[in-house]
Amino acid sequence: MARQRRKNYDASIQLTPMIDVMTVLLAVFMVTTPMMTTGIDLNLPRAGASAMTGSDHAIQISVDKNGKYYLSEMELSRDEIVKRAVAMRGENPALTIMISGDASADYGAVMSMMGKLKDSGFQKVGLRTQPE
Question: At a CB cut-off of 8 Å and minimum separation 6, what does 117 contact?
Fold first, then answer.
């Protein structure tokens, strides 16, 4: 009769490759996260102790100091932004819109955008500010 030899297997977990992968992932996320901010550079007005910043799931509309309208970083006309917002609302009925108006922007341009959105049926339209 032949005897079977038992082989000793090393069942320990090697942590070095896992730590290497996690370090690389951490570095990638630390580098790419600041680049993921959307919108244009605005000087937001200061109002109160708590700022209204908006949620991550809101449509971000910006009005710069020259009265130009932006959807994220794309410059569009006011009517084109409203059309796109209505199309997005078809996919998500609880959509929120945040308008970021530059502190030196024309008040009429910001309120014109807000009025058009309200006329299109949007109930949740907010204005972003900075804390004082």
Answer: 82, 85, 97, 125
